[in-house]
Amino acid sequence: MDKLEKYRTSIKQLIQEYGTYCPSYRGGEVDIELIFDTEHDHYQLVNVGWHHKKWIHSCFLHIDIKNGKIWIQHNGTEDDIAHELVAKGVPKEEIVLGFQAPNHRH
After folding, report:
1. CA dist 33 to 39, 65, 75, Å?
2. Residue 75 sits in which domain range?
C-alpha cells in the first residue's frame, strides 16, 4: 500500500471509530455523518439534526491530506488525534496541526 492510501485508510479508521460514539444530544434527531471525499482528500465527522427545537450542525473532526501530509484542520474532541494517527503508523513529521498558527507549529 502506498503512503497516500495508508494515510486515507488511517484517517477513515479514526473517523469511523469516533463515529460510533453517540452524540451528547438526547431527546432529538441528531445524526452522525462520516464524510469521506477521497477524490479531494477531505474527511469529516459531523453531527446534524434537531435537538428539541434547536438545529444542530457541528463538525467534530476535519482532516485533509495536502501535499502528501495529513492536516488536522479541526479537532473538537478531547483526545490527541495526532497521537492516535501516530499509533496507526503515521510518522509525526507527516502530521500538520492546521488549526494552529504557522509560527506555533512544530
Report:
1. 18, 19, 15
2. 3-104
CA 35 to chain centre: 9
Q: What's the confidence (pLDDT) of residue 102? A: 82
Q: How many domains does the chain have?
A: 1
User: Each residue of 70-102: pLDDT tens digit?
Assistant: 999 999 999 999 999 999 999 999 999 998 888
Write out pLDDT tens, residues 41-73. 999 999 999 888 889 899 999 999 999 999 999
Grid cell in block for residue 97: 496541526
Domain with residue 11: its CATH number is 3.30.310.110
How far are the Cα atoms of 12, 15, 52, 79, 93 from residue 37, in angstroms, in the given order? 10, 13, 31, 23, 23
